[in-house]
Amino acid sequence: MRKILFIFLGLLSAIFISELLLRLDPKYRFDSLTGWTHSVTSEYHAKCYRPSKILGLELIPGSCDRINSLGMYDKSYSMEKPGNAYRILLLGDSITERGAWSSIIEERLNSQGHFEILNCGVSAWGLVNYYRYLKYKGLKLEPDMVLIGFCLNDLSKALVYIYTDKKKKEMKLFTIENSKGSDFSVKVNPGLFRYSFLYRFLFINVIKGADPAKRDDKTCVQMLSEMKMMANGNIYAVIFPYLKPLEQYSGSENAEYTDLISALENTGIEYLDLHDHFNRFSDAQLISYRIFPEDQIHFNEEANEIKANVIYSWLLEKIKKAGVDRPDVQ
Question: Is 229 helix (H, G, I), strand (E, B) or coil?
């Protein structure tokens, strides 16, 4: 009995000492590892989202208002593309999922022919998620074109690690910074991940390596290049700015911006940079376009209208370029 007690105390001491030593290493600090953290105490979110081994996080088909049978925050579409339709697969994060700008554009495009913009955006997604969605799900929808709505921090996001507690109606999300572009998907205990250096160390160095889910260890440029091939070259991107003047960007935000442009240009993907449009507005105007004054990422209804106007004109040119042999595209 005494021997068992000594072993237990020894293990406890080792854990305690390991925790203390790891606290000296800044690379395992919580804010060093997580680019975005969110805790939702909402029955709606706990009901509408679920973990996914492939995508990290996804919408549950038909679970909530406006979530269709294909798991999109959009109106209903058939899995099989109608014969006379020009179908655009739209990928993005929360700016896309709840932005409503794609519906405005789809309505206007339909004055030119039969168009469908399938809004596949999901909150907290990044490039890894876009790549995986297109590879494992999106191509089955037979898109004529792929359009990616990029938030500036999308290249640095790995898959979302999710823990849900439906009894407490709570969902906690973690997005791990991932500059090399590799990805993996497992559940974590949000409390331990938030407060224990040792748990984060084991998670990054042990659990990650043992992940049984499919892995795609690729750089951002490699993923974008593969997406371009999967889309037969008919892939475009829109860059959404932070809603503040460029001169107020931090060093890391400027790096996000330049890295994204570099990745798109290195892969030859044409893009619309909305910085060119929104930089004309004053600081006060940009703040007025935020859905909440403290939220510099999400656009309100007025700003979504502005955004839709600019994207529509640009996108129509790309559609004509990609579909010149289609009689229904005027």
Answer: helix
> Is the pLDDT higher at 293 or at 158?
293
Listed range (170-174, 183-187, 246-250) with the worst mean pLDDT: 183-187
Q: CA-CA distances (angstroms) from residue 217 to 103, 124, 183, 221?
A: 34, 20, 6, 12
Residue with tokens 């703040």: 287
Helix (H) or strand (E) holding 49: strand 49-52
Which DSSP state fits 82? P
Q: Collapsing DSSP states into helix, strand and coil, what is residue 8?
A: helix
The mean pLDDT value for 159-175 works out to 62
Local structure of 169: helix, strand or coil: coil
pTM across the whole model: 0.80
> Span 147-165, mean pLDDT?
77
Quick one: pLDDT band at residue 134, thresholds 50, 70, 90? very high
What's the whole-number mean pLDDT along residues 131-140? Answer: 95
Q: What's the rounded Cα separation, in Å, for the pair 330 and 326?
A: 8
- What fold is seen in the domain 29-322? Rossmann fold (3.40.50)
pLDDT band at 179 (very low <50, low <70, confident <90, very high): very low
Hey, what amino acid is at 283? D
* CA–CA gap between residue 241 and residue 90 (Å, rounded): 18
Alpha-carbon distance of 144 to 81, in angstroms, equals 10
How does the average pLDDT of the chain come out, rounded? 84
Whole-number Å distance between alpha carbons of 131 and 136: 9
Break the chain into its structural domains and give their ranges.
29-322
Would you say 122 and 45 are in contact if contact means Cβ atoms under 8 Å apart? no
CA angle, corner 307, sides to 313 and 75, nearest 5? 90
Contacts by residues 260-266 (CB-CB < 8 Å, ≥ 24 positions apart): 260/150, 260/152, 260/154, 260/155, 263/155, 263/220, 263/221, 263/224, 264/224, 264/237, 266/221, 266/224
